[in-house]
Amino acid sequence: MSRDPTVCWLDDALLPWADARLPVEDRGLQFGESVYEVLPVTAGRARLLEAHTARLASGAAALGIEGPDAGRVADVVRRLIAAERVAEGLAYLQLTGGTAPRAHVPDEPPRPTLIAYLRAHRFPRAADVTHGVRAVTVPDERWARCDLKTTMLLPTVFAKRIAHQRGADEAILIADDGTVREGASTSVIAVLDGALVVPEPSTRRLPGTMSALVETVAIEAGLVLSHRALAIVDLPGADEVLVTATSKLVLPVVAVDDVEIGGGTVGPVAIDLAARVRRRLELE
Predict the structure, then answer these.
(1) Of 132, 243, 246, 276, which has the most beta carbons under 10 Å away?
(2) Which of 91, 120, 149 is the last residue of a domain?
(3) Is the domain of 109 the same as that of 132?
(4) Which of 84, 105, 120 marks a domain boundary?
């Protein structure tokens, strides 16, 4: 088990971890009015900062919260890295609607609250990729704006519990029409007839920052890439299925609902893309 952080950024200051507290009437707690991001830190540097900051600002604006600018986010993360002396980890940022007397629409918009901390994390290496992960499919029971990275994560907690109970590592969320949306905490990509297929953008799935990086390195690798609907019936016959996430980078899925993908072995596309992402992040 990794140690707890030593500090937390709260109310424009670094506080000892044990002293960081939120008011009872914080709107993130009372109404779920909050968005968050998780940034990778590798070789002592925050990565994909621009993409994460842009997504945080976009989500905050949709919730009616004034988001921090890129310079402030960069400064906060730099301070956390210096304080924790962590070379490899995950920086968590959460922006809430602030604190006000409990009302759905307060008389005066409160000042938003920015929370941030850094926890050590080991990212997957080449040996981890060779094992792959197992997934199960679960009906998507979330709300209609899954493109916003809010902290309303209870449906995905339920999905992760189902996956755990069935001996799997991830749950793939499926729409009523059989369309693949995303994983409970990952983006899903398939390799069909040698081409990379990424589900098309939608308000029902999160625009993943790691997925976007994977698309970039895939194009550099000369792979054919298309954005289109991916269906649950496409998964059993896929050449490969991949999941991507900030904490997991790129991992191959070797089985979905106990049906082996690609004979249950890790394919060459997953191995290559994972290696390219690790090089980008100075992990090898």
Answers:
(1) 243
(2) 120
(3) no
(4) 120
Indicate the pTM of the whole model. 0.95
Separation CA 243–CA 177 (nearest Å): 21
Collapsed DSSP state (helix, strand, coil) of residue 107? coil
E strand or H helix at 251: strand 249-256
- Tell me the C-alpha distance between 114 and 15, whole Å: 13
For the question of residue 160 being annotated catalytic, the response is: no
Do 164 and 245 lie in one domain? The reply is yes
CB atoms within 10 A of CB 63: 20
Q: What is the CATH number of the domain that holds 16?
A: 3.30.470.10
Backbone angles phi, psi at 271, to 5 degrees: -60, -45
* 1, part of any domain: no
Residues 240 and 134 in one domain: yes
Instruction: Please tell me the distance from the alpha carbon of residue 55 to that of residue 38, in angstroms, as a whole number.
Output: 11
Walk along the chain (284 residues) and give the pLDDT tens digit of each residue: 468 999 999 989 999 999 999 999 999 999 999 999 999 999 999 999 999 999 999 999 999 999 999 999 999 999 999 999 999 999 999 999 999 999 999 999 999 999 999 999 999 999 999 999 999 999 999 999 999 999 999 999 999 999 999 999 999 999 999 999 999 999 999 999 999 999 999 999 999 999 999 999 999 999 999 999 999 999 999 999 999 999 999 999 999 999 999 999 999 999 999 999 999 999 98
Pick from 14, 107, 103, 28: nearest CA to 65: 28
The one catalytic residue in 55, 134, 149, 276 is 149
Count: domains in the chain: 2
253, 241 contact by CB (below 8 A):
yes
